[in-house]
Amino acid sequence: MSVDDYLDLLNYAKAINDGQWQTDIIESLKNLNTESEEPQVQEESVIELWSQFDSVNILIMKLFEKLRKNEESDEVLHWKEQLLELKLERSILSKKILNRYIRIR
To answer: What is the largest CA-CA distance in the chain?
Structure first.
């Protein structure tokens, strides 16, 4: 039912002086608002997670490029450690994204 339908019912409940029905309709309207706002919040959080995921991927690609171009550098070990940390972070982000998609649908 739409908000308009609920408001029509609420007006009718007021017209026949049915207080309990008015309370039930008002409660239904509150739940309807909460349910309609929730997907928007989840969608925004998914967008933010994807943005973080993309940023981590860019950093991973840059590190791979550094490793490929500077195989003899003294920093190779440090870059490899950073790479492992970023891969772990990407894995965590992908699990969060998957959880958000499951909740949205």
So the answer is: 85
Question: In terms of C-beta density within 10 A (0-12 exposed, 13-18 middle, 19 or more buried), how is residue 72 classed?
Answer: exposed
pTM exceeding the 0.85 threshold for the entire prediction: no
- Token digits of residue 32: 């309807």
**Integer Cα distance of 38 and 60 in angstroms:** 33
Cβ 56 vs Cβ 89: under 8 Å = yes
Enumerate residues 6+ apart whose C-beta is below 8 A from 4: none
Residues 6+ apart with CB under 8 A from 43: 104
CB 26 within 8 A of CB 3: no
Going from the first residue of the chain to its last (105 residues), give the mean pLDDT of each consecutive group of 10, the final group possibly shorter: 74 88 86 59 76 94 94 91 94 87 61
Cα dihedral sign for 12, 27, 103, 55?
positive
C-beta separation of 29 from 11 below 8 A = no
Predicted confidence at residue 81, as pLDDT, reads 94
